[in-house]
Give the backbone structure.
Amino acid sequence: MSLSLTVGPVQYHWGRDTLLQFYADVADSAARDIVIGEVVCSRRRDMKPSDWMAIAAELTQAGKQVWLGTLALIETEAELRAVRQAVERGDVQIEANDAAAVRLAWHAGRPWSIGTHVNVYSSEALAEYRDMGATRWLAPVELDLDGVRTVAQAHRDAIAVEVMAFGRLPLALSARCFTARHHNLQKDQCGFICREDADGCTVKSQEGQVFLALNGIQTQSGAVQCLVHHLPALRAAGVDALRLSPCSQDFRLVMAVYEALVAGDLAAQEAERVLRGLRLPGPLADGFATAREPGMNWSMA
């Protein structure tokens, strides 16, 4: 089974010019699918809806399949209204990240994608979402590959399966902004302090080990998911696409490594060696891929 590449949404507060350059670079990449949009914090307004639609048009013209990711935590009527407008506009496919987006896409009769924050851990749940119009499923980051295969095997020809194969993992959300609290700021007067952390704010344990990353209201893994040694298991699990979550440094090289890997032009060991030489935000981990290891571990050690 051939594997395609997906570039996930930028989860951090990057500036407008940085985002525009990033998507110009992505347009020339081997990725087939691109997820755009602000999925973490509605206060980040550097990019307007018209900006995202302009990017979607350019990426589509470049041959990419584009999805607009919705907010993962909707707290206000204004945020819900923005999601409703995105769904009703109908000019780009939706990746739903919460139940409201699921319901809106379903009632609009539009095909949509299950984002990582819509947790699906059983075949029965996936069948319900499939019947509501879902065409793709991004598996929860904590689900090991045997679990992915168990959930997906009854839906082989009906729904595409995607797994997070690279990047800091989105683990949890809160109404509180952890980055603001870290800087002794109120959430509503945060001054957009998260802009200073291009890959989130790293949290270490008392032993000095990289543990988590704070990204506004989102908690991420401190380690960087890396599944370069798991291609046979990914194919056996029925996975169709590998999601690469953007980081601020050397992401073009990350995409090139995964492109060569899935094409069979690069061995897993060499891919690992190249990745370890890049400016990544944290150590590599693949523990969630198996049921035997803690998520932050590197099972190949």
Remarks:
- The CA atoms of residues 171 and 272 lie 24 Å apart.
- The chain is about 30% helix and 20% strand.
